[in-house]
Write a structure and sequence with these properties.
Blueprint (H helix, E strand, L loop, with lengths): L1 E4 L2 H12 L28 H19 L7 E6 L17 E11 L2 E10 L14 E7 L2 E8 L16 E6 L2 E10 L29 E14 L4 H6 L10 H16 L6 H17 L2 H13 L2 H4 E4 L10 E3 L2 H12 L6 H8 L6 H13 L5 H10 L20 H20 L6 H4 L2 E4 L1 H7 L10 E4 L13 H6 L8 H13 L24 H8 L3 H15 L13 E2 L2 E2 L3 E3 L5 E3 H11 L1 H17 L8 H12 L5 H10 L1 H4 E3 L2
Antiparallel strand pairs: 1-10, 2-9, 3-8, 4-7, 4-9, 5-6, 5-8, 11-18, 12-13, 14-15, 16-17
Helix pairs in contact: 2-6, 4-5, 4-6, 5-6, 8-9, 10-22, 11-12, 16-18, 16-20, 20-21, 21-22
């Protein structure tokens, strides 16, 4: 048997598809370690501490899904990052508002809830930039429920009184709702809408806010709960409802059989039901029918057949020989590859009839799954790890050198690349367009950063690019350029390493121990990055790898550490001359892109290797190379379309077979 635990993303998606419940798994489970570039590779262990976290998560999720009221009102606190500029419209809130936040929240029961709002303060504990009255709206699913007037404190009062009464109680139904908090925009004649030298306003001493801002929103309740309501999760769970006590066991078995067949990704035997039914009866004796289902569901969510991918070796297979996985295991591989989640009923039905492996059925199901919204996981799970987009959250440039950077820009950078990669999937474009595209996705904040005119508002939209914009494929995205830079400067080393590893498949070896960073050597601080690296390469231990990485990164030196275009640095022209180790030379990002496109099989092979690693949940071995070459060769006939590569992997021998141990 092979075991691989669900990572956090897979666990969250599995709960969503099994129970019709959106949960914040990051608050329940620790992050997963990565290997071979992805966090679905090394998730095999289950320490006692992690077991405890999974048990706690299962209990919390089961209670939310069934809709049992907490013993006392609970408080959920949502806090806005301090480096968010709140002068403009936030996507998801009504037009005519500025700042604030939209907070998705699962209300456990029908009832009354209290919403409390607190405002940003400066170091003196005074509400920032509150010089005149402002209107603050509280909304539920975009509908206004309360409007407050926030006024400066009167003489003799402290700022503690300003937001002490920004509380409102609302009646709402159980289930997922969107709580919104925002200030009413004050109109174009006022300072908050006039032209400012910078887009950033969150630092009280450098770039103070133009008006008050929301700090945190608390949701407390329920008070006077009136029942679990009619939520999507209850409709998914309670496929029957007993009318008399004698019917309860039969109904519970029907509910659990339905849930367990999905959760365990295969048929359920009578013995599989014994444990959950025993727990159901114990909890039913102490409470009601719902309490019994809740406890039984908790046991399902900590069962190894749910928490792990388990592939059992058939009897009689010799160690070291290859064998075909069964149809249920194939269905599971497909769903976790394309959806990062459990198979749906259609996949499981085909597996039960032993029809899934048929080539035409595989094609039809793969295309259906790619068209399904759940394939968004290829963006948020595969692409974000392959392209290092998860590292954008840690990007924090030096404010003295890059004063026009805030979390609004940070999130816009990430969103541009997510939407761009999603367009490759949805439009079934050639993966070469990841390098050569002449379009991107922008909102006003990112367009200003790029110097692209005529893009207004918080909404992202597709923008056809002029050549003069100097934007396009991945190598020109601020997200990629920022995560491959330092806080104070660009890094040709990091950028070159990123290109070689992620686009060409020629990752340099790690640096030798005890090699100092450039920043640690004072003699390097008065010369250009290129000169510093030339001196760095004078060390024989560094020369070989840096001769490979540095010239590739130099081609991107026209982009600064936050992805803006520049022609000079410290008054000197940028030298963007670079090349590959084989002697091919190029100058600037356009020439680097063309060098990649001149040998498309290198990029497509690397992309295929990354996608196959993600699909298999293991690192590739030498014996996988023929399958990779076959996938690339067949995709070439279809201009390397994304679907051709996905289908090639699904049909490949490594995907449909495994090696006996």
């Amino acid at each position: 048997e092979t075991f691989r635990r669900l990572n956090r993303t897979e666990y969250q998606n599995a709960i969503r598809d099994l129970l019709a419940l959106q949960v914040d798994v990051a608050a329940l489970l620790p992050p997963d370690d990565s290997s071979h570039g992805f966090d679905n590779i090394t998730v095999t262990d289950l320490s006692p501490t992690l077991v405890s976290r999974y048990v706690s998560a299962a209990q919390t999720i089961s209670r939310q899904a069934v809709g049992r009221a907490p013993q006392s009102p609970e408080e959920y606190v949502y806090r806005i990052r301090p480096d968010v500029t709140q002068d403009g419209h936030i996507d998801g809130l009504p037009l005519g508002t500025r700042g604030g936040a939209v907070i998705p929240y699962n209300f456990p029961q029908d009832g009354e809830y209290e919403i409390r709002v607190r405002l940003m303060r400066d170091r003196n504990d005074e509400v920032e930039s509150l010089t005149e009255p402002h209107e603050l709206d509280v909304l539920l699913d975009r509908a206004p429920v309360e409007r407050f007037t926030v006024t400066p404190p009167e003489d003799g009062q402290t700022h503690q009184s300003v937001d002490a009464n920004l509380n409102v109680r609302i009646m709402t139904t159980a289930g997922r709702h969107r709580v919104g908090v925002a200030f009413a925009s004050q109109g174009a004649a006022l300072e908050e809408a006039t032209r400012q030298p910078l887009n950033v306003h969150f630092n009280f001493y450098r770039h103070p806010r133009l008006g008050p801002a929301v700090f945190q929103v608390s949701i407390i309740g329920p008070y006077a709960a009136s029942g679990p309501g009619d939520t999507p999760s209850r409709r998914r769970i309670f496929t029957c409802s007993p009318t008399v006590p004698d019917d309860e066991d039969e109904c519970a078995e029907r509910i659990l059989t339905n849930l367990m067949s999905r959760a365990y990704r295969g048929p359920i035997a009578a013995e599989d039901l014994r444990g959950p039914m025993r727990l159901f009866r114990e909890a039913r004796a102490e409470g009601d029918f719902d309490a019994g289902i809740e406890r039984a569901l908790s046991s399902v969510l900590v069962n190894p057949r749910f928490l792990f991918h388990i592939e059992r070796e058939p009897s009689g297979v010799a160690p070291g020989s290859a064998y075909a996985i069964d149809d249920f295991e194939l269905a599971s591989r497909m769903s976790f590859y394309l959806w990062s989640s459990i198979p749906d009923e259609e996949l499981l039905d085909l597996a039960a009839r032993s029809e899934l492996r048929q080539p035409d059925v595989l094609d039809q199901q793969t295309r259906r799954m790619l068209a399904d919204p759940r394939s968004q996981s290829l963006v948020v799970n595969f692409a974000e790890q392959w392209l290092y987009l998860r590292n954008v959250e840690a990007v924090n440039p030096d404010m003295r050198l890059y004063p026009d950077f805030d979390d609004n820009l940070r999130q816009a950078m990430r969103r541009e690349t997510e939407l761009f990669f999603e367009s490759i999937i949805r439009e079934d474009r050639s993966v070469l367009d990841l390098v050569r595209a002449d379009y991107t996705y922008l909102n006003e904040r990112l367009a200003k950063h790029y110097g692209i005119p005529h893009v207004y508002g918080s909404r992202f939209r597709r923008v056809k690019l002029e050549e003069s914009s100097r934007r396009g494929g991945l190598l020109r995205h601020a997200s990629i350029l920022a995560v491959t830079s330092y806080a104070t400067r660009t890094s040709p080393v990091l950028r070159g390493h990123w290109v070689l590893k992620n686009l060409i498949g020629a990752e340099p070896p790690p640096p030798p121990p005890d090699v100092p960073d450039l920043e640690e050597n004072p003699v390097f601080r008065t010369v250009s990055v290129r000169e510093r690296l030339e001196r760095h390469r004078s060390d024989a231990a560094c020369a070989n790898c840096h001769a490979t990485m540095d010239p590739v990164g130099f081609a991107l030196e026209n982009f600064d550490a936050v992805g803006r275009w520049r022609d000079t640095e410290d008054g000197e022209p940028i030298d963007a001359a670079g090349g590959f180790i084989d002697g091919q030379e190029f100058v600037g990002p356009a020439a680097l892109e063309q060098a990649l496109l001149d040998r498309p099989e290198l990029f497509v092979r690397t992309f295929t290797e990354k996608l196959m690693t993600f699909a298999l949940g293991r690192g590739l071995e030498y014996y996988d190379a023929p399958a990779v070459r076959q996938v690339v060769a067949r995709a070439c006939e279809d201009d390397y379309r994304f679907s051709a590569l996905v289908l090639g992997i699904v049909h490949s021998m490594p995907f449909q077979m495994r090696m006996a141990e």
